[in-house]
């Protein structure tokens, strides 16, 4: 893949379908993604492609119990974390697809939770969670101080 991408999708092999779905949703919304299963084709240099992924604007971690049992994802998310350790630029965005508790440093990072959602709910939550701007209510919230 030539040129910089918006999102590098980091995942365990057991979550490849989730990674493909996330890539599809983001690309339909106009983002560019790098996903090992889709973009690392025969003849590519795996290490070079992963290095290109670490240059993406943001890294999405597809969180599941399997993600934490694999050695490669740690180096992938570690590269993003080291560039933005306090999350000001939201360089590292966890997306939880199966029940799990992020360990260590990852426990402090707010994640997008897709567990148990319908396709449409997950689609909306993913795109909403990745928006750069702070969401603004579209209508006034209920007044909490009593009768209107």
Automatic annotation (TrEMBL):
Residue ranges occupied by any TIR domain in the UniProt entry: 7-126
Alphabetical UniProt keywords: Receptor
Gene3D superfamilies: Toll/interleukin-1 receptor homology (TIR) domain
Protein's name in the database: Toll/interleukin-1 receptor domain-containing protein
InterPro entries: TIR_dom (IPR000157), Toll_tir_struct_dom_sf (IPR035897)
Transmembrane in keyword set: no
SUPFAM superfamilies: Toll/Interleukin receptor TIR domain
Organism phylogeny: Bacteria, Bacillati, Actinomycetota, Actinomycetes, Pseudonocardiales
UniProt entry tagged with the keyword Zinc-finger: no
């Amino acid at each position: 893949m030539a040129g910089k991408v918006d999102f590098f999708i980091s995942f365990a092999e057991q979550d490849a379908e989730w990674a493909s779905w996330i890539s599809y949703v983001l690309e339909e919304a106009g983002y560019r993604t790098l996903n090992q299963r889709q973009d690392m084709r025969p003849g590519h240099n795996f290490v070079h492609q992963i290095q290109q992924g670490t240059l993406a604007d943001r890294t999405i971690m597809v969180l599941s119990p399997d993600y934490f049992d694999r050695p490669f994802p740690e180096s992938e998310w570690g590269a993003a974390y080291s560039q933005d350790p306090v999350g000001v630029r939201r360089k590292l965005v966890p997306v939880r697809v199966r029940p799990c508790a992020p360990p260590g440093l990852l426990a402090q990072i707010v994640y997008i939770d897709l567990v148990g959602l319908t396709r449409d709910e997950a689609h909306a939550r993913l795109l909403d969670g990745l928006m750069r701007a702070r969401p603004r209510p579209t209508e006034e919230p209920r007044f909490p101080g009593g009768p209107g």
